[in-house]
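Researcher: Here's my situation. A collaborator sent me these components and asked whether they could plausibly form a single complex. I don't have experimental data yet, so a predicted model of the whole assembly would be a useful starting point for our discussion.
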Amino acid sequence: MKVFVESSDVLPLVDVEVGFPIGSLRDPVGREGLAQLAGQLMRFGPRGLSQERFEEQLASMGARLSVEVSMRTTRIRAAVLRRNLEPLLALLAQTVWDPALRASDFAKLKRQARAALTARLDDDQTLGAVCFREALFGAHPYARPLSGRLDSIGRIKVGHVKDFHARHVAHGEFFVGIAGDVIDAEARAIVASHFPSTGRRQRRSPHVPPTRPRPGRHVVIVDKPERTQTQLFIGTLGARTHDRDLFPLIVSNTAFGGTFSSPLMQQVRAVRGWSYGAYSRLLHSTQRDAWYMWTAPAAEYSSQCAALQLELLERWVDGGIKAAELRFAQRYLINGHCFDVDTPAKRVEAKLDIELLGIPRSYVDKHDELVAGVDRDRANRATRTRISTRDVIIVVVASAKDVVGAFEGLAGIESVEVLPFDRI
Amino acid sequence: MVAPESMVEQLNRGARKRNARWTFVSEQPFGEALTLRRFRLGNGLTVLTLIDRAAPTVSYHTWFRVGSRHERPGKTGLAHLFEHLMFGATRSRSLGEFDRLMERAGAEANAATWTDWTFYYENAPRSALPLLIELEADRMANLVLRTPQVGSEKEVVANERKLRVEDDVEGKAVELLYSHAFRNHPYHWPTIGWMEDIRGFTVRDCRAFYRAHYAPNNATIVIVGDFDERRALSMVQRRYGHLPRVRRPAERARVREPAPRSERVVILAAPTPSPKLLAGYRAPPFYHPHTPALVVANEVLFGGRSSRLHRLLCVDKEIALSVRGSISPFVEPGLHEMWIAVRQGARIDSALALLDKEIARLGSRGPTRRELEKAINQLELSFLHTMETAGGKAEQIGFHETVMNDGAAAFDRLASYRAVTGEAVQRVVSKYLRPSRRTRVEIVPRPS
């Protein structure tokens, strides 16, 4: 166990996080959603306490608790009024290391998880994002849906959850972050009196094979009726956390589509008014994660917007960014970095990220130097090396009949697939 | 901290024009450790300052007392469109320069519009404060409104409306709720405006709106963070002190909107997999003495997983996926909104019957002592969370100043929640949460 404390007496509030370096990449094939269900069932409370009593106790303390599962982490987060920190930590420790994991609660949770998957069909942007990852990564574990699918959830039994908890949480390595109105020594003493002292060190993440691009440009239309507007995701593979050219690529992507002033936003929104928002995101992980652009144009000019974005992409990759754009992106990233650490909770979060995600410490400690050290040549070379203009996935959530012909006509498209929205 | 009176005296020594002369108005504690000061320039510009050195950042807010309530039929959505236009060119700065300068300085700049107000904000490193003051003062007086940009922003807003309303089941339901709950009052129309009104705006409409509402005597500036107060006030004086007051349009007489005598029901068939229920009960305005008790009642019913309705509908009966409630924080009477996402296969009328039963029980027996304690602790936690950053504090101050004429009232709200009794909860539930005061929108799935 490692404990990180950030003290601040500005508000009588404490944020707590217990993080485990395990996540949905541990889900066995066919039982996707297991890590998330395990986290959520733990959230039902400890042995010897009904869920109702557990929720009562949390609320009475002025506390909130959530469990967030990602591909590589499980984070149990709590916030509590200062005066109730110790009882909250005691209850949290019981919840994490001695959870009830009752079969009756699990049956309820599965019904809830299925209902949530159904409700997700209302959210076009989420549908587009899920479909984009599946289309981009294909059979690779990065394509696995965090929340599982209706059929995979059906296959998960409470025994699987108990086994997952016993193997990865009960004796697993973990990290604790405490931020807010508590002094360092006091926080450590309370943690030491309630939390187990050690956890078995384990591999941070299971072996994940390299991601590979799907050759060519492919369109997937998520067909949903009565759409006046479309959700458009266009992208390709992104970066690895340990890539030597990660920072040059971060700077280059910021210049291309990371700010309101960037060419992507200016051309799509400011000049044409085609979408309320337009941005590009670079994701990085142990293997190459995604790079993508997002816009939400009206159906009547969705394909034109996609064509424009592809043109901007080619211009960016082939032509590179200009010296002024590089300087602008660097200043934006360096000057705005103070907002990554402007609260105690964010400062603790950055330390936990280093431990849980294996992010090099220098990315946090020397952020400004790393950004400032990028020159135009490195930025443009990183962009050309990492971002493909040939192997591109385009996902559009739309009423297919309104857009399919126009998307088939986009330059260089090799396939167009139409998927009913309720099959995502 | 320097005494405000002597600081103002020093600052006024060099100010010849009346508009540029400062008045120190008041000083109030803001929580246990901070102090909120209020100053006013001769041209009517109110400035609230809060020094908070927890982080090397500053938050700069400009609140205007104009929102969709101040519009008229046929011109709905103008306040919101204008929020977009304010990021355009000024007499001395080209299109896009505002964002470029802000982003280069590491500032996050954005804005929001609702029924009673519009506000613009920047969260920035402390060194950027002079730039924020300069750019905000510039666009308050020197915005250039021309056809190409108005046309382009109209298209952006039309797209935003499609994103948030036309293609969004919940957005559409909220629009229907307010348009049926209010027949005469401006809360009838959505802040984003009706699509035909958005399409129809002219440059002339925009210029008239700018002249009428964007002026120092209709604005409040809030500065929170790690800054030198004297230097900040000096810069504000220099940048805004030459701006004239304007004659603001007379506040229209309050439009009377009687509470409905019987329930209004709207059915919305939509391409959605599961039914939903949105109910709105006519509620008092934000500043009304009954509002804190209604907020506590809302917390008892909807606040978190131990709340009555979450427990009943989501856990015990399993007919809903999620529930939530909120009271519109409006200057004039709004709605107590309740949202129930019914599960596929369950029925809206079952959810409604349970909702009615639970509200009736709260009205007749009130909350338990434990429920009251939980509700107040949860409200305190939520409040403290809003105060974590300079930006969060500035927003609370600006909101309370604009809606309640008291920027420090955020902490009074917390005290008012603590003073709520079980009997008070019972009284407001019986008074406001009657089905006859309700408008409800039932969203029913339409097969694709």
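Model: Some features of this prediction you could bring to your collaborator: Chain B touches chain A through 67 residues (CB under 8 Å). Chain B has a mean pLDDT of 96.
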